[in-house]
Amino acid sequence: MEGFTLIVCRIRFLVISYTNHTTTMTAQTLHLLVTAGPTYSPSSHHLLPINTSTPLQIHSPHITAGITIRIQNYRGLPSSSPSTSSYFTSAQHKADLYSIAFSFTLNEDIPGTDLLFGNDFEKPIRDRLPTGFGTAYRLLRWAIDPGLDGDVYAEHPYLYGPLLSSINVLRVGGKEKASGSEHKSVREHKSVKEHTGNTKHDDQEQKEVGDDIITEGADGEEAESIRLDLKIPDDGAKRMKHFLNKAHKEAFVFEAGRKYSCDFFNGYLDFNGKSSLLLHRYRFRNRPLRLFIQNMKYSNDW
Fold first, then answer.
1. What is the Cα–Cα distance from 163 to 2, expressed in whole angstroms?
2. Cβ distance 261 to 171 under 8 Å?
3. Looking at per-residue confidence, does 2 or 230 come out higher?
């Protein structure tokens, strides 16, 4: 799939070997590791803290963004990560298993038809898909995201859709001054290597996300007028359905300098590997999953 990458979140299971000193036997365990950056290249990525209040800041010539991930019953790296977040005790998210929340400000306008949200794998997965996956995929498109497109049997499997009709929550914010002219990569957090051990973080960095749950809507009269003028529904599910219409997508523009906030979540995908069709930890141990935001009008950079 062609497209210029703006944000990439990479989810993989890291194999860690350990020795039982009683039996002197060596064993391996798999630990979830989540990184993010402005490109597909792992060298541009930094470890993404899970279930904390500190977003990972991403800066590039194209976008300024912050991303926060919450995973219920998290057992991955760094091992000091909280196992849950108060996000999952809120009334609207008690049934959800994860949240990928992010805010972004673009440095150039992007038409609503061109900004994509989706996921792909670095390697083929067709020989690892569980029985019944085809049926589950058709159900996913029918019940959850009719705008979804992709090819899970390709050399580089992918699923994606327009962000406007794929994201659970979309909040339109005010105009900001983007800082993408400074070509900075992620610099707010330490490298993956530095964080995979059982390190301690200060209380400020590890404070749980509490009230900062993104909700559908707009911030300020100007942002509200955008939604009103385009007749965008106030309800997230209705807004997703609204933007399945091509004319509605064509009428929307993600403006340079304006802040947009999103939240993607559900109760179907279990990153702990207990019930997930896609991410069973042993089935996909060497198949990192990448979630991305792309501008489809530019050539890919990987």
1. 16
2. yes
3. 230
